[in-house]
Amino acid sequence: MISVLLIDDDPMILDVTSLYLQREGEFSVTTCEGASGALHILENKSFDAIISDYEMPDMNGIEFLKVVRARGDTSPFIIFTGRGREDVVIEALNNGANFYLQKGGDPKIQFAELKNMIRQAVQNTRAEAALRVSETRYRVVVESQTELISRFLPDGTQVFVNEAFCRYYGLSSADLIGKRFFSNVPKEDELLLGKYFRSLTPENPVGSIEHRIVLETGEIRWQQWVDRAIFDGDNVPVEYQSVGRDTTDRMRAEEALRDSENKFKVLSEQSPVGIYILHDGRFTYVNPGFAEIFGYTVEEISAGMPLLAIVHPEDRACVGNKLDEREMGSNGTYEFRGVRKDGRIIMTEVHGSATMIGGVRVIIGTMLDITERKQMEVDLKEKVNYVQALMDAIPAPVFYRDTRGIYRDCNRAFEELTGRSREEIIGREIHDFFPREYADVYREKDDLIIENPHIQRYEFAITDRDGRRLDVLFSKTALFTAAGAVAGIVGVIMDISERKRMEQTIRENEVKYRTIADFTYDWEAWLGPDGNYFYVSPSCERITGYPAGDFMDHPLLRIQIAHPDDRELVERHYCDSLHDNEGVSHIDYRIVTKQGEVRWISHYCQPVFREDGTYMGRRENKRDITERKRVEEALKLANEKLNLLSNITRHDVLNRLTGLLGYLEFVREFDLEPGVIAFVEKAEESATVIRHQISFTRDYQDIGVHSPAWQNVRRLVWSASMTTLPHSGIAVENRIDGVLVYADPLFEKVFTNIIDNAVRHGGPVSRIEFSLRTNGDSLIIVCEDDGRGVEEGDKEKIFRRGVGKNTGYGLFLAREILAITGLSIREVGTPGQGARFEITAPDGTYRMENEERPGEEWRSRGGVSPRASRNASPLPPSPPDDHNSPGTR
C-alpha cells in the first residue's frame, strides 16, 4: 500500500480526494489543512508521496515544497491546485516537484490521472533506491576487500598490508612493507592505545578498539580495529595481526541522530503551538506551549488528565464525538471552547489524527489559542458596519453599477434621490429609475470608462423622486477586480441646480461685470500681465484663511502658501503659464492655510483678451478638492478589497465545484432509478457550465491588465505548440523567424487557442503550419491546418463568446487580446481543405528583431508608430485574391 500525505485548506477537497484515492485499497491517505501542520507530521512520519494545494493561507504549496526539500526529504511531491498559471508550474518543477495537476476538470478523469502520477512517482523513487542498493552490492563484490588488513612488529615495522590499507593512506605497499609506520593519533588517544596493546596477553590475545586518526590533510577520522597478538615461547609479543575499518560515517550518523533528537525536543519544547498525544482520551504528552495555553504545568496535564477536563461543559459532547471520529481514522480541524486552570474561557483550534506509537494507537496533534483571532473577526465586522455608516453620512448620492448598468450598491442619499429603498434599487438597471433620454447618456458615459478607465466628470441632468429635473455634476470612475479588470462604475452625484441658477443670473447682469461673471467659480482671480492681481474673490479667505487684500498686496503669497513638497510645481506652473498665452493650464497641489491646515487645490487658469485681441492677463480658478481626494482614497481602498474578494471567491468556487462533481460521481455508483440518474446528470451539467464560466473570468480578467510589449512570434508559436501538442502526433511547421509584434502579454494565448481549435474541431488534423506574408504596410501571420476547415456561415460566429463545442471562449479571447494593440484575426480558409487563420498586424505594431525599437512618442499617441517596420527585411508578398485560396500546403 502506498502512503500519501494530502494537504489542502479546503476540507471538502480533502474529503473527496481522500475518498477517491482510498476506495480501492491501493493508497492510505493522511490529510492536513495547512502546510504548517503537514511539516509537524513529516517530523515524525515519512510518506511514499506528498500531494499539496498551491494557494493556502499560512504557506503556499511551493514555499512548503522548498521547506520539505531543504529538510532532505526526497519523497515524490505533486502540486494539485485550481491555479493554472504557467509561471506557477515552472516554479514548482524547478523546485523539485515531480508533477503538477490542475483542479477543475472531470473528477473521474482528474483523480485517475492523479493516481497514475502517484504510482509513477513512487515507482521511480523506489527504482532509484533499488538501483543505489544494487550499485553498492556490486561495488562490494567487484572492488577489492574494503577492510584494512596489516601485520606489524612491536616496533611498528609493517610486514604485510592489503590494497585497501594502501588506498586508505594513499601509499603503495613498497612505501609501507619493511618500514615503521604508525598512524598519527591525537594526543588524548595515545594513552588509550598504549593501555590497549598492553592488555593483550597469551591468555587474552585478541582485542578490539575504536579510536581517531589524523590524515595527512589534517582531517580527523574514526577507525575500529580487531587485533591479535602473537607471542613467542617466553610470552613476548613478536607480531600483531590487525583488521580495521573506517567508522567515521557511522560515528557521524550517530552524532547526527543525537542532534536530530535534540532538535526535535527543542522544537517541541520551544514551539508556541500546543502539541499533544492522547491515549484513550487522556493526555500522555504535552509540550510547554500546550500547558501555557491552559495555565497548567506540563506534569499536571501529562499525568493522564482527561481531554474533557479542559473543555467547556457545553462543548464536551461535540469534542467526544470528534475523538470517536479520530479513532476511526478521520482528521481535520475543529474548534471548541476551552477552560483554563484559572477558569477563563478561551477559543481553541485543534488538529489531530490517529497513529501508532510503540504499538499503541494514539491521537497526536496540535492546538492553537484563537481567542484573539475570533475577537479580530468581530472587530472586522464592526469596521464593515462603520464603512457603510460613513457612506450613508455622505450627503451626496453615491452609487455602484456593474458593467451592465445594474446597481450593486448605494448610500442613503441615493435612496432619497430615487424615492426607493436600497433593497428596491439593488439588482435593477439604470432605465428603471430615470427617463430614457437621460439613462442612455449615463450608459454611454459608463461605456467610455469601461473601455478606457479614467476619472470622468460632466454636468448633466437627473430627475428626483418627484420627477423634477435637477442640474447635477457627475464624478465617476472605474472599480477594478483583484485581477485588474473593470468590475463596474462608482459615482457621486452633486446637485448644482443652485449654481446653474446663479450662473444664469450672472449672465443677465450688466456688461461691465461680464468678464468676472463668465469666469467666476470657487476662488476666482484675475492676474495681470505684470504678475499683479486685478481681482481676487472673497472666497479665497474661506479656502486659505487669508483675505483677498493680502493677495492683492502681496501677489507672491499665492506661491508662499503652497505646501513645501509642491512649491516647486507651483513656481514652475506660474513661470510657464505667464509666458504661454494659449490654452487652459491645470495643476492639483496642496496649500497650508493661515490656520496651518493642509488642503488640496485644483487650479485652472486661462488667458483673458479684450475684444480687440489685447492680452489682459490670466483668469484663475482654484477649487478646494480636499474632500474629493479623501473620497478617492476611500474608493481606492474599497476597490482593492473588492479585487481581493473576487480572486478569493473564484478560488473557493472552483474548489467547491471540484468537490460537488466528485460527490455526484460517487452518487452514480449507487443503484439509482433512471429518474434520479437524470437529475444527477443535470446537476453535473450545470456544475460543468459554472466551472467553464468561472474559468473564463479568470482568463478574461487578465486581458489588458499589463502593458503591451514587443514579443518574438516564433518563440510564442513554439511555446504554444509545446503546451498544446505534447503527445498529439500533429506536426507543427514554424516558418516564422525574426519578427517582433507589439501586443498584450497574453499574446501567446492567441496561438494556444488557434492550435487548440484545430485539435478540437478540425477533424483528422496531421499538420499545422505558421508563416508570414505582407499586405501593403500590414504584416499577416498565417496559421493553416489540413483538417476539414470552417463552413462559410460559421467564419464569423466562431469568434463570438459562448460559441463552440468546448467552453466557447477560446477564439473570443483571442480576438479580445489582439484588439488591445489594434491587431485583428479572421478565418479565410476553404471548407473541406483545412482552416486558415490570418492575424493582421498594422504598420507600427511589428518590426524585425534587429530593428531599433520605436520611441515613446508614438506609443503616447495610441500605439501606432509612424515607421516601425517600413525598413524591415522583405517578407513574402500577398498572393492575388488570397482570401479565397487554400493557402500554401
What does this structure look like?
By secondary structure, the chain is an alpha+beta fold. It is built from 28 helices and 33 strands. The strands form 7 sheets. The chain has a 5-stranded parallel β-sheet with strand order 2-1-3-4-5, with helices on both faces. It has a 5-stranded antiparallel β-sheet with strand order 7-6-10-9-8, with helices on both faces. Strands 12-11-15-14-13 form a 5-stranded antiparallel β-sheet, sandwiched between helices. Strand 13 and strand 14 (345-357) form a beta hairpin. Helix 1 (11-22) packs parallel to helix 23 (626-668), helix 23 runs antiparallel to helix 24 and helix 25 crosses helix 26 (747-761). It starts with a strand and ends in a 30-residue tail after the last helix. The model is unreliable at 138-144 and 852-889 (pLDDT under 50).
Brief summary:
With 889 residues, the protein is an alpha+beta fold. It contains 28 helices and 33 strands. Strand 18 (456-463) and strand 19 (469-480) form a beta hairpin.
Which structural category do the helix and sheet elements fall into? alpha+beta
Q: Mean of the pLDDT scores?
A: 83
Calculate Rg over CA atoms.
Answer: 40 Å
* Helical run tally: 28
Helix content: 25-40%
Low-confidence stretches: 138-144, 852-889
Q: What is the first-to-last residue Cα distance?
A: 54 Å
Q: Biggest sheet: strands side by side, in what order?
A: 2-1-3-4-5
Strand content: 25-35%
General form: elongated
Tally of DSSP β-strands: 33
Report on the biggest sheet: 5 strands, parallel
